[in-house]
Amino acid sequence: MDKPNTPQNQSETIPSSFPPLQIHPTSLIHPSSLPLIHPTATIGPFCLVGPNVSIGARTVLLSHVSIPSNTALSADCTVHPFSVLGGASQAIADKALGDTGRLTLGNNCTIREGVTCNVGFSEKGTVIGSGCLLMANSHVAHDCIVGDEVILVNGVLLAGHVTVGRGAIFAGLGGAVQHVRVGEYAYVGGATVVSRDVLPFSMVKGYRGLTVGVNAVGLKRRGWSRERIEGVSRAVKAVLRSDEKVLRELVQELVNEGADDVARLMDFARESERGLCLLLGQERGITKL
User: Which residue stretches does the UniProt record annotate as biased composition, category Polar residues (predicted)?
Assistant: First the structure.
């Protein structure tokens, strides 16, 4: 799974020609954060920026945005009203850790109205990659790792320690319980809450969170050929049916074509600790899609 493309060093060389930082007079900025805010950033009315917060170049807080503490918001992000970034973890066990956690967001993220993202207490804290779109009222809990170009549609809830791979999409009111992993370019359907790991490239739907195939539409939009999508589709079914013979054939077939999709999918499956979302029909003893 690709690591989120977040900056390792938030400091930037600031040319003296940049205009003064635009901060609306109704906003409150902690003195320790002022040197960490890029001069080209814009902070609109009624915003709160607490201690140890860095804001990158050309990032805009529109209005009524709260960033309580310990947050790195990178360049070219837009944060809409009533969002809270870097709030304390809601986990009872983490209350004793106080405000020592961390939240990092990559470049070009769009945070829509009412989004909440909590700090995390692992080595990296909570991480949201670059190019992500978090739609209204979505929630990213403590210690989540969200890859680049992920989309969380309205009302999506990610519990603590969830990992979401690059380009994955959660449809409206979806979610994931603690420690679930969602593979790259996977699709979780509307109102679907997953309690098992979601295979890369797969599509999971329904209140039981069953795998119904591959995210064919999403993969086509990314320029995948029909043959490549069909190979991944066969691999998803073979993994969930534990068909080792088919998997070996697919790995060799796709390696010859220069693609490692099936190998990555198999690695993801081997590393699963929660188990994988069942194939549609497996819960009834029928495996055919």
Answer: 1-16
Instruction: Copy the structure tokens of residue 174.
Output: 């979806």
Distance CA(2)–CA(183), nearest Å, equals 10
Please count the CA atoms within 13 angstroms of the CA of 33 that sit on its side-chain side: 22
> 86-103: per-residue pLDDT in tens?
999 998 876 666 567 999
What single-letter amino acid sits at 120? G
Catalytic residues: 142-143, 160
Which domains, and CATH codes, for the chain?
22-179 (2.160.10.10), 219-284 (1.20.1180)
Pull the structure tokens for residue 54: 């860095």
| CA pseudo-torsion sign 22, 72, 93, 96 | negative
Q: Which of 180, 147, 109 is nearest to 1 (CA)?
A: 147
Q: For the segment 41-66, what is each residue's pLDDT rounded down to a tens digit?
A: 999 999 999 999 999 999 999 999 99
Report the alpha-carbon distance of residue 249 to residue 227 in Å, rounded.
15
